[in-house]
Structure formats: structure tokens, C-alpha cells
Amino acid sequence: MAATMLARCSRIYNCDYACKCVSSENHQTAGKRNENRNLVINRRFTKPSKLILRDRSKLRKLNDPSVTLALRNFADSGLMEDALHLFDEMNKADAFVWNVMIRGLCSSGLYHEAVRFYCRMVFAGIKADSFTYPFVIKSVAGISSLEEGKTIHATVIKLGFDSDVYICNSLISFYMKLGCARDAEKVFEEMPERDIVSWNSMISGYLTLEDGFRSLVLFKEMLVNGFKPDRFSTMSALGACSHVCSPKLGKEMHCHAIRSRIEAGDDVMVMTSMLDMYSKFGEVSYAERIFNGIIQRNVVAWNVLIGCYARNGRVVDAFLCFQRMSEENGLQPDVITLINLLPACAVLEGKTIHGYAMRRGFLPHTVLETALIDMYGECGQLKSAEVVFDRMAEKNLVSWNSIIAAYVQNGRSYSALELFQELCVSSSSLVFDSITVATILPAYAESLSLSEGRQLHGYIVKARYESNTIILNSLVHMYAMCGDLEDARKCFDRVLFKDVVSWNSIIMAYAVHGFGRVSICLFSEMVTSGVNPNKSTFASVLAACSISGMIEEGWDRFGSMQREYGIDPGIEHYGYMLDLIGRTGNLSSAKRFIEEMPFVPTSRIWGSLLTASRNHNEIAVAEFAAEQIFKMEHDNTGCYVLLLNMYAEAGRWEDVDRIKLLMKSKGISGTASSSTVEMKSRTHLFTNGDRSHVETDKIYEVLYIVSKMIGEEEEGGRCCVHCV
Known about the structure:
The protein is mainly alpha-helical. It contains 40 helices and two strands.
């Protein structure tokens, strides 16, 4: 074992690792133990440390405690270059001095140098002690070396330090940082003694690994075992509540913090965590109340409030908060300020902030560039998003997730899937996570790729992401869109903490399959369970009523929006109600409904009336609706085609020719109909009259047989006219 360790140390010593600065507060207690050792140092030493370094001729005449104290002063101040010079001048260094150097390098973020220094210590024959390994393990975590970390772990076991609580805490943090939750669990379970840091390391570790449910389970176990949560436990638990999307648990955690006297206006970190949690729940009033209770607001607190307003559609408040930040507290915006402000931006303001970031020298910055991709994606500016992504000097997994999400949001599902494949194949250093999975699932839903979606579901089970509420919600949507309502319901039933998105997804799933009654029952269950409906919920419910022709239920739910829940119906809700009225055939009532709307009718509203006119063969109303659409969108292909079909079915061939000439004069051509067929995990796209497929002859032969079976016939000199 010793020879193996020396060989590995030699390899580490000669390798050139990339230094990474990773902050952690899990080993503060270990640092305090080292400080107790300093009590033996000669307290009569008063000469400034810098003078010792300058007068090297007298260095060897100074007593060892004085030199050690000077070395510690340099290390504690982050002056590691001076500390290294002083260390090299020392005749003899014991384990304590080596520990001071390793701790100083680790605390300064010089993880590679700290590991090399540990190797020097081993080569020098100095026996490492229990004070050495917490910082060595943290340094190995900093350079993300799992192999070397496991070697250090083996050495710790050999030396009998595996029962040391501080070393075990370091190992837990190391394994969690590198995504090895099972190894961390094993260390945790085998600990003969645990302290609050042990529990905090596990709770925060699972939260980092996107498993908020496991974090909350451990938090509860910690309470059962008699440990009182500290500020770090509370912050992790608050983050876990927002991760599992449970406002009820979040408020319970808030009450627990108050009872434990952890929530206080002077603890800006805990208060900011609460602020962030309520922001993610959409509880803006609660977030404002928390923010107003913070005594000394730092830039982080302001950034979270700006992000809260931006995330919840309070655009004006977000920019006013941005202005107040410098006026009231004299704080200057940083990169995170701009990142949080971007979701509130339209394209113009977003480009302004993009330019501001360039002028202030904030770019290149991976996180800010990723936020710009998100903003451009939200605004439909895919070209700009692609430019930012392509120009990024360093692309991390979050950047890939953002550009994939941008494609999905803008209906480019196939492009998103291609990019996902590129991420899986090309970027060997990046392994997609739960966020990637949740992002790409809607693309499988839109492209109706059921078999590939099932394969991804298999990966989700293997990666233990099935407790993730966001992923399960996406699976419900994917299975519903692909026609598998049974599996959609199974995924919904597995959601432990059902949020409003969970209920909306399953309500819409039954709606699109024509089970409107089931959707209404699910809505009642949702309200009974204590989850408040939002605008999207009512959109799903009204869609269910429209598709299933439930007129009375539709009007009842539409009226209850404002009456019972204080939700003002939006243009989307009026659109569904118009569809519902149109199904009755009472088109005069439909026109009157449009006129009485509190909104300016959009082309989608007039399109609903046009479709209803088509279904009930009311050409006059259809012409009126089409005229309104042409005023807004003169090149609306679907509108021209629908009118053309109606004229053709009525035998009004002069009007058919007139529409065709009008389309030709405006340069409008009919949109080619297309369909997709999935076979053996491959999706084939076909357009009308397509002969590009390699098996075209066989396809048309089968099509002829099928057509003959369903009795399709050709008539005289003119084909039967069907809707395009």
C-alpha cells in the first residue's frame, strides 16, 4: 500500500492539473482544531512577519515557534508565495508546519499545489496525521480526481483514521461533489460518530445532485436523531423544498426556522435562501416581506429579488429594483444581477444588457452567456442564441441545456434532438444530468418519438431521477402526446409531491384524448389536495370541456376563475370558450362573444370562428372571419386554404379560381402536408407526393392496397375534393 501511495504521489507530483476554485464551508470545524495547536506557539513574538522574510540572515537564529507563527500568518492571509519562501528557508519542518502549508494552499484554492505538497510530505518521510487529510481530501475534490481521492481514502483506512469525524465529513463532501452518492452514503452509514457537519454534508450533497426529496428525508432523520439544525442545514432544506416544488413544506420549514431562532434579519444568508425559495414558488408577496426583513442587504439579496420579479413577470418591478439597488445601498450590479434581470427583458432590452455587459468587460463569462442564450430563446431569437452559443470560449453542461431548451421552446424539436445526440456522442467530458433530461423530453413529445422516449425513461430509472418532480411531469406530457395515456397516468401516480404542473399535465393528458369528464374529476382532486390552480390549469380544463363538448361545465369553470380563485381570464381562455361555443353551431353568439371580449381579438381568435364556420358550413361567417385575419396576417396560408376548401365543397369554382389567383399574386403557396411514421426507433417524415424515400415503390404499393380496401375511388374527370 505504501509503495502504491508513493507511486501515485510521484505521478501527481509530475502531472499538471488544472487549478479550480471551489468554495466549501463543511470543514470549518476541522480548521478550528488546527488553531488549538497554535496555543503552544510563543505568544511573545511580536515582530511583523514581513520583516522576518526580509532579514533572511537572521531567520535560522529565530526560535521555531516564531518562524511557525510567521508561516501561519502568511498562510492565513493568503500570502502563499511568501509562505513558500519561508518554508523553503526552514531547516526542519514537522507535521504541523506541513499541515499549515497544505491548509493554506487549499484555502487559497490552489488545490493542485496542495496535493503536490502532500506528496512532498510523503516523500520527505513526514507522517501525516488526522489534521492533514481533511484538507488533502478537499484539495483532491477541487481537482475532481476520483481515482486519487479513493487512493487517499484507502490510505486513511490503513492508518486507522476512518473513524475520525472530520476526515469522514471531508470524504462525504468529496464523493458528493464527484456525484458518487453511494460511496458518500457508505461513509456516512459506517461513521461511529456523526456531528452536524456530517448531516449537512449529506443533505447539501443530495441537493447538489438534484435529489431534493432525499435531502428532505435526511433532514427529517437528523431531527429524529436529536440534532438541532444550524443555518447551513436550514439553507439546504429550504433549497430542497423549492427543488421538489412543495410550497407547503417550504412554509413548514420557514416556521421551523422561526421556532429555532435561525431566521433573523441579521443572518442575510438564511434570509436570502428563504427569499429565493418563495421566489421559485411564485409567492412574490412573501418574498418581498422576507426582503424587507433583511437588516443589511448585500448584492446577493438584491439579485435574488430582481430574479424573483423577472421570473414572475413583474418586469417593471425588476427594473425598478435594479435602479434602487445602487440608489439606496450604493451597490454596483455584478454579473449575477444581469443574469437575473435578463428573463424580464424583451429583445430590445436584452440586447441593451448584452451591450452593457460587453462594455463593462463582463464577457466572456460562461454563466452570463448562458443567460443570454435563455433570453434570446424566450424571445424567439434563435439566430442570436446560436451566435452566443457558437462563440462561447467554454461550453459547460448548463450552456448545452440552454441551447437545447431554446430549440424546444421555438418548435425546433428535431434540431433539439440532433443537438442532444451531439452532446451524448461528441462531448465525452460532459455527462447529461436531470436538467438535460427534463429539457429534452418535450422534444420527444413534440416529435412523437415514443420508443426513443421510452429509452430515455429507462435511463431516468437507472440514474435514479424518478423522484424528480420536474422529470416526472415531463414524462407525463411525453407519454400523453405520444398516445400512451396509461403510462402517463403511471408516471403521474409516482409523483410524491404533486405541484400545479403535475396536475396541469395529467388534466391536459386526459383532455387531448377526449376524456373530459376525467379531467374535471382530476381538477376537483387537485383543489381538494390543497394545490391552487393557475391560468394554465384553467386552460387545460377549458380545453377538456371544448374537446369533449361539455358546454355547461365549460361555462361554470370559466366563471369560477375570477369568482372563486381571483384569476382574470386571458386571451387563451377566451379562445377555448370560443371553440366551445363554436361546437354548438351558434355562430351569432360566437361573434357576439368576440365583440364583448376585454381583449383585441387576435388571429387565433378569428381562426377559431373560421374553423367553426367551416365545421357548420357557414360560408358568410367564414368570409367575415377570414377578412379579419387578412387584416392582421395577409399571408396566412391556412386561412386561404380553408376558404378554398369551403368554396370547392360548395361547388363555387369561380371563387376557388379567385382565391388561387389571389394566392399566386401574393406569392403564397399551399403548405405541404406532412406526416411522420416511427419504425424501429427511426422517424420518417413524408410530404404530399413525396418520392424521396428509398422504399418509395413499396410504400406506394401498400398505399394503393390500403386505399382500395377503404373504398377510395376516382370520379370521372374530377377527383373527390377533400380538405387539405
